[in-house]
Amino acid sequence: MNGFIYNVPTKIHFGENAVSHLGDELKNYGKKVLLCYGGGSIKKSGLYDTVKEQIENAGLEMFELSGIEPNPRVDSVREGAKICKEQNIDVLLAVGGGSTLDCTKWIAAAAKVEHDAWDFFSDWADVTDALPVLTVLTLSATGSEMNCGGVISNPETNDKIGRLAKPLLPKVSFLDPTLTYSVSKYQTACGSADILSHILEVYFAREQDLYMLDCVMEGLLKTVIKYTPVALQKPDDYEARANLMWASSWAINTFVTGGKQHEWSCHPLEHELSAFYDITHGLGLAILTPRFLRYCLSDKNVGKYVQFGVNVFDIDKNLPPMEIAQKAIEMLENFLFNTLGLSSTLTEIGINDEHFALMAKKACEGATLQGFVDLTAEDIEKIYRMCL
Ligand code: NZQ
Ligand code: ZN
Q: Ligand 1 centroid vs 158 CA: distance in angstroms?
């Protein structure tokens, strides 16, 4: 394996009432706060009032950007950046799920430049600076609360593009599992499918890995498999929500990545699905991941599937390797589609093969996706077809 740098200095306040420290933390970053949130779940839950009170009691001035969409759009980034510039905002506060957090991160970058926000994605414009971002997470899924990534959609061009940039890393994130009690069964399931995928994208690696990191990933996978059904059954189960929340952060804060160089596979394929059809990210991943694993399975890499099946799903290690591998994929499908209750095909969610060729080409940028197994546009199109 390759050497690596691990440097994720996001300060985390974890636990019930974590938000009681919000005012004190915000004060460290200036006087004018832009509160960014989504379609209103924080108003329904009462979190908006709590946050507002924290900001006011800290003697700070609050501005607002509401209505950030799931699969956030570049127009929201533009709108937020405009407010930042006009009002001389000092610090951004994102309150919501991954979409709100991602959008807020890119507002923080766009506020510091004169060019259009989409240039960060279409031209890969430099990200050298950003306003400080603090987050209050309300949905366990993306890990955006503890990483420097953000995914933005441009419906005009059918593009959905994710990008990492160090200045976007949240300074402080507040993780109160009770704030996720109100997340619907569907979003809870999709969130867990997303967490699983973040781990599997790394776990199924080309190179020999650190045993220690594989064990951590297996522990995270087992955590999601154990606690998601509990949260679905009893949405206010603190232990379940807390385990899912902390697992979501650690699945994708670069810790488990170690020195792995290979590209992710299911995420680029999924981003095309949500770019063209605006579907929920975790649902797209749930449909794609088992098909991707089945497509990539070969005598050469069956060992990794065996490790996954035996260590995560407790499959009998004495069975023939290919049988274990097939069984592991079936158990993953069973978890996603039966236990979590997610739709199992693209057809079920109204997607046909109309755009598959173009989506496949875009997913591998016209070349080869160098993930667990090299995938050409032709391979990717076949995987999409397996999902029909
Ligand atoms: O908009 P509101 O009203 O807040 O409602 C949201 C939204 O409708 C709702 N919700 C959130 N918290 C809630 C709640 N409803 C009730 N109670 C609560 N406590 O849930 C819906 C979905 O929210 P969203 O933020 O879209 O979900 P998620 O956290 O799954 O974020 C998905 C986005 O993140 C990107 C995805 O591509 C997608 O655009 N990703 C970001 C990553 C990153 N930054 O590292 C990595 C991921 O792989 C992913 O690509
Ligand atoms: Zn994801």
A: 19
Q: Domain 185-386 carries which CATH code?
A: 1.20.1090.10
User: Which two structure tokens, joined as six digits, stand for 183?
Assistant: 């997340």
Using the mean position of ligand 1's atoms as its centre, give its distance from the Cα of residue 36 in Å: 13
Residue 177 Cβ < 6 Å to ligand 1? no
End-to-end CA distance of the chain: 37
CA of 167 to the centre of ligand 1 (A): 21
Q: Cα(272)–Cα(274) distance, rounded to whole angstroms? A: 6
Q: Which ligand 1 atom is at minimum distance from the Cα of 162?
A: 50
Ligand 1, atom 36, lies closest to the CA of 281
Which ligand does the CA of 195 lie closest to? 2
pLDDT of residue 264: 94
Ligand 1 atom nearest the C-alpha of 181 is: 19
Q: What is the pLDDT of residue 259?
A: 79
* pLDDT for res 268: 96
What is the CATH topology of the domain spanning 11-179?
Answer: Rossmann fold (3.40.50)
Ligand 1 contact via 170 beta carbon (within 6 Å): no
Please report the pLDDT score of residue 210 as a whole number. Answer: 86
The ranges assigned to domains in the chain are: 11-179, 185-386
| pLDDT for residue 209 | 76
Averaged over successive runs of 10 residues, the pLDDT of the chain (388 residues) comes to: 88 98 98 97 97 98 98 98 98 98 98 98 97 98 98 95 97 98 98 98 87 96 98 98 98 90 92 96 98 98 97 98 98 98 98 97 94 96 98
**Ligand 1 pocket, 140 CB below 6 A?**
no
Query: What separation in Å is there between the alpha carbon of 363 and the centre of ligand 2?
Result: 15
